[in-house]
Design goal:
263 residues; Rossmann fold; Ubiquitin-like (UB roll); 2 domains; 36% helix; elongated
């Protein structure tokens, strides 16, 4: 009798544990689906309005562009306006393509107001990209990306880079390979001690051949190699400029590591 009673107790305990596990699993599944439903379809996470806090003259256009993107998206099983599943990276790229003056966009969802707030970081002007034969120039950032048309007279404030190809740049697309552009900026900054540089000129073969032409206020130009340090190059140029009885120059060609030519 004792053995039979003991077995019955063991069986009852096993059945009880199985029921507990069943209720735990069933409860977990229920709350998982219930939570997913709340996240997907709760009105608290449905974007009702878009508010841009960027710049007064752009806020309306940015808000409209963001709202157009949201309504054009087609996620599976997810409402288009669900803020939790908004593809912010894709929206950022879309807005940058439409508003190249901005480096990037940030998005914050205000739950009580059901409002998507859009903010942005503007690009900084590092230089001006001017096209030979055209009256307008383009502000470019540290990545050589043009983002706004400006008048040619603005070149007095910034480094002027003249492109002799004659083709207008595409806003939002880099005009030069980044290593080449960074070398150009280093040469320009280091060359300010000469006090004669006026602009950089990009000839058709400049990028491929790795050289830059700098015009001077004395109506002659300098050719430099991007693979040679500015300090080394300008030291050689200073040697030429300090020569006694130096004739009127047409150019100084400092593109070679161990030589320098002038005429």
């Amino acid at each position: 009798m004792a053995d039979s009673s003991s077995r019955d107790d063991i069986l009852r305990r096993r059945k009880f544990r199985r029921r507990i596990r069943y209720f735990i699993v069933a409860g977990s599944v229920f709350f998982t689906f219930f939570g997913a439903y709340i996240l997907l379809y709760s009105t608290r996470f449905r974007i009702q309005t878009v508010e841009a806090q960027v710049r007064d003259d752009l806020n309306k256009s940015i808000a409209q562009a963001a709202w157009k993107y949201i309504n054009a998206s087609s996620p599976i099983f997810v409402p288009k306006t669900n803020a939790l599943f908004l593809d912010k990276k894709s929206l950022d790229i879309t807005l940058i393509n439409s508003f190249p003056e901005m480096r990037n966009f940030q998005f914050v969802y205000n739950v009580p107001a059901r409002t998507l707030i859009v903010r942005a970081t503007p690009r900084d002007t590092v230089a001006l990209w001017c096209v030979s034969g055209r009256t307008t120039c383009y502000a470019i950032d540290e990545g050589s990306i043009p983002f706004r048309e400006v008048t040619a007279t603005s070149a007095n404030k910034y480094l002027r880079i003249t492109d002799e190809s004659g083709a207008a740049p595409v806003l939002g697309t880099a005009t030069l390979p980044l290593p080449f552009f960074e070398s150009l900026i280093r040469y320009w900054n280091a060359g300010q001690n000469l006090r004669i540089l006026t602009e950089a000129v990009i000839e058709k073969e400049s990028v491929g051949a790795g050289y830059i032409r700098f015009e001077t206020s004395q109506r002659w130009y300098i050719l430099v190699r991007t693979s040679i340090s500015p300090e080394e190059t300008y030291a050689k140029i200073q040697t030429v400029l300090k020569m006694p009885n130096l004739p009127q120059l047409r150019y100084i060609d400092a593109r070679y590591p161990d030589k320098i030519y002038y005429k």
